[in-house]
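Fill-in record for HTH tetR-type domain-containing protein.
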Amino acid sequence: MEKETKGVRTKRQLYQCAMKLFRERGFDRVSVDEIVREAGMAKGTFYIYFNTKSDIILEMLRQYDTYYDQIMAGLPDDLSIDEQMEEIVKGACRFTEEVIGLDLIRVLYVKQLTEGQEHPGLLNEDRALFRILSELLTAGQRAGIYDPALDVPDTTRLILHGIRASFFEWCSSRGQFDLTQECLYFLHTFCRGIYHTAK
């Protein structure tokens, strides 16, 4: 196993301290000074690893991607493609609710709206969720489950539109509904429309 460097440990500590403070007090109420104080580091150290406080959000997205890959790696081999898709969506909801939380999801959407393509969102084709869903759709086409005429990138984007819309509504309602049930209902409804034969 590759030895972890001091730089990696320092960056992770800054990230973890920032996330702790964000969850406790809200992103807008936490300063860089408070993050480094919590981490027991000099302010200059923060700027070695992050240009701004908002860059913590980018690191959060990288954690998101790692989490998706871990979910896929841990799935039993006998799960159907539909079941694998359900598990990745459930994992996305679980990570959003338990790790990110309402306040940081709000910050993420604000950044996406203000920074556009400079800020990598769920629809970015380089992101893990896009890649994983595309691979599952392609496998489903090859297995005769999904309509072979489907354009996989476009269909993946449509699924992510629905998931992102559910996340947005959950955020707007301050978590007043079950996010996992909402996203799974959307997924099941959508997938009925792309099956190669009626189920």
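KEY FINDING: The domain at 1-53 is CATH 1.10.10.60 (Arc Repressor Mutant, subunit A).
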